[in-house]
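My main concern about presentation is that the manuscript never shows what a single data entry looks like. Each protein is reduced to its one-letter sequence and a matching series of backbone shape codes. For the editor and my fellow referees, an illustration may be useful. For illustration, here is how one protein appears when written out as sequence plus structure tokens:
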Amino acid sequence: MERPDWYYIDLKQVGLDFADIAQVESYDERQADDPADDQALLAQLGVGASQVVADFGCGTGMLACEAAKLAGFVHAVDISAEMLRATLARAKAMRLANLTVRQAGFLSYQIVDESLDLITTKFALHHLPDLWKGVALARLHRSLKPGGRLFIRDVVFSCDPAEVPEVAENWISWMGSNTGYSRAEVAQHIREEHSTYSWVMAGLIERAGFRIMHADYSQRIYADYLAEKVSA
């Protein structure tokens, strides 16, 4: 579908360049991701064989592939072709036939209305400015079946604006000690990407037509949201 000239291009890389094979190959290690964490999350979300799931910003496909072990079908969506190649390799190694990949973003993926039971997205929505987060959330809302749910995990500042310098420095220090990301890389995220405040994110989710069932904030920098589609 042709977009107007003012429409945001969500296929461009923001922050770290995940079209870079080296970035992709080191991603899981630097993130300190563990499939057991995704398995526990999916169990909490109650993913079952009758469900269709979409994972936006799927990265190397760890969550999407774990979901495919439980769900009827999984759509793995990412703007990086290299990430999608890694996802397909993981799915092949796990002998998963019920997963498909699509190079697209929140704004460019063409989703059939009311076709999904669950949408997950981890550390991807911050790639969009707040205006376009709202548009993306409205699109996700339309794609969910009545009662469908949305899980978001992202970098979200649950602090006052005056506290941002302290929170930013604490986060940079924590990331250096607990992940494979350098000070320069975390600083780039804060400077160039579009992480927002907790009250803004909650408002965007609710304005899109969701009811927030659960919100959890940690370190004044991370947030989990579980939201349900509210029928009109």
Observations:
- The chain has a mean pLDDT of 92.
- The first strand starts at residue 52 and ends at 56.
- The first helix runs from residue 21 to 25.
